[in-house]
Amino acid sequence: MSDFVLDPRLENDSTNIMATGLCDVRLSKDARWPWLILVPRRADITEIFELTPLDQVLLTFEIELVSSALKKATGATKINVGALGNIVRQLHVHVIARSEGDANWPGPVWGFGKAEPYEDATRDELIAKLREALLP
Question: What's the whole-model pTM score?
Answer without folding.
Answer: 0.95
